[in-house]
Amino acid sequence: MTEEIIIAGFGGQGVLSMGKILAYSGIMEDKEVTWFPSYGPEMRGGTANVTVILSDTRISSPVLHEFDTAIILNQQSMDKFEKAVKPGGVLLYDPNGVIHPPTRKDIRIYKVEGTRAAVEMGNPKVFNMIVLGGYLKVKPVINLANVERGLQKSLPERHHKLIPLNLEAIRKGGEILEAN
What we know:
By secondary structure, the protein is of the alpha/beta class.
């Protein structure tokens, strides 16, 4: 099994964190993993994306031009990465930041209203975990117990009290996922 993922959006949406948590979770399952971030010089509001590869075998390169899955959080990323999803692949997006939804017919498209759900949960910071939960519902490439271990590894210890909220957000994402 090899899963090649691009997560893309604006800085401040938790794009890099989502990728990092996926990567650490993969390590907890003894998978081969790459985490390859790309972002502008701005702290928030600039573009950000991260490529994550999870594999049972050795990974030859972290650089990809096509992906099994694209997780898209804004229109700019949709315009850039929709065409990079392999035929038969998955595109998952949050409609809050996307004006023109994906149109391809040769991929599976899913929507998760992470922004709305995060507001309903009372914490906009769990947005990325809601989206991650939607992804893991579509492609359960990582066991939820290992996601918890990945959160423990990737979050500073002072934030470990937020792990239950993050796990709740992941479950919520799986519940609100919609196929397009």
